[in-house]
Each structure stands twice: as structure tokens, then as C-alpha cells.
Specification:
Blueprint lengths: L13 H4 L1 E2 L6 E2 L4 H11 L3 E5 L5 E6 H7 L10 H4 L2 H4 L6 E3 L4 H8 L4 E5 L5 E6 H19 L1
Parallel strand pairs: 2-3, 5-6
Antiparallel strand pairs: 1-7, 3-4, 6-7
Bound molecules: adenosine monophosphate.
């Protein structure tokens, strides 16, 4: 049996596994919902971070949130896509950690979230830690431990 505590996995630096901010699809708080839907659709992601012009994290926007916000009583009010802005409808509760957070804490959070947002001490958005990246690394680690054990 593999004892992960004895391995190096939990000691990994989460920054080494992070997708850096410049490679993260995101929108700005002032963007309208039409733009956000365009970015979400083109990127293929269901939810992406909402940043301000100084790269501070304000929330997450997703396709379901946008669709819900333009749902009228009898029809989808597509004209609202242009009128409404991301900051009016975004989810302000963001799964976020500092870049020096431990892998153990991140693992616990990733059970319930597909990705975590990473912030520097000064609050600037540094990137994201997707669940799939961590699982990939854990899988590699387990294979390596198994090879060592045989
Ligand atoms: P994955 O585990 O790669 O499927 O990613 C899980 C979630 O993380 C995606 O559904 C997105 O919400 C988010 N995500 C992953 N990579 C990116 C990226 N490059 N830009 C923005 N969001 C991302």
C-alpha cells in the first residue's frame, strides 16, 4: 500500500502545477454578458474568472449563470446579453487560495470545485489550479511509487 505522506506529493508546490494567469481565459468586470458568453463558448469552459483591470479577482462567471439571468417568463431575453454586465450576475463566492497554500488544503477544496483560483499575497490573480492537473500528477506519482515497490 502506498503511503502518500511518505511520498513527495503533498509537499509539491501548487505554483508548479498552476496554469498561469496569461493562459487563463477570463473576462473583466465591466464586460457585457454577450462578450462573456463569447469567451466561454470559444474557450469551451463552463466557468471562468472575472478580473478587474489590475488583475484582482472578483468572481466567477459561467454559462448557466448567464442563461439564468436572461431567462424571462415566456422566452429567453437575448437582448439582455448586451445590456447586462458581468459584475451584476457573477458568482462572488470564489474557491481561492494563496500561492503558498499547501497541497493538502487544495486537495480538500478540489473535492467540491473543478478548479481553484490562486492569488499572490497582495491579492493579485496568479492563475488557476484545475482538479484534472492535480489528479494527473497524483496518478503519475502513484505509478512511480508502484514501480519503485516492484
Ligand atoms: P479541467 O480540469 O482542465 O477540465 O478544468 C476544469 C475547469 O477549470 C474548466 O471547466 C474551467 O472552468 C477551468 N479551466 C481550466 N483551464 C482553464 C483555462 N485555461 N482558462 C480558464 N479556465 C480554465
Amino acid at each position: 500500500m502506498i503511503n502518500l505522506h511518505s511520498g513527495e506529493f503533498l509537499q509539491l508546490n501548487i505554483v508548479d502545477l498552476m496554469i498561469p494567469s496569461e493562459r487563463v481565459a477570463h473576462v473583466q468586470i465591466g464586460n457585457n454578458l454577450e462578450h462573456a458568453l463569447l469567451v466561454l463558448t470559444k474557450s469551451g469552459y463552463t466557468a471562468i474568472p472575472v478580473l478587474d483591470p489590475h488583475y484582482k479577482l472578483h468572481g466567477l462567471i459561467s454559462t448557466p449563470i448567464i442563461m439564468e439571468s436572461i431567462l424571462g417568463l415566456e422566452r429567453i431575453e437575448f437582448e439582455k446579453l448586451e445590456e447586462k454586465h458581468v459584475e451584476e450576475v457573477m458568482n462572488k463566492s470564489v474557491p481561492r487560495v494563496k500561492t503558498n497554500e499547501s497541497m493538502k488544503v487544495c486537495l480538500e477544496l478540489l473535492v467540491n470545485h473543478p478548479f481553484l483560483c490562486l492569488e499572490a499575497e497582495n491579492g493579485f490573480f496568479e492563475g488557476i489550479l484545475p482538479r484534472s492537473t492535480v489528479l494527473n500528477r497524483l496518478n503519475k506519482h502513484i505509478k512511480m511509487m508502484n514501480r519503485k515497490a516492484t
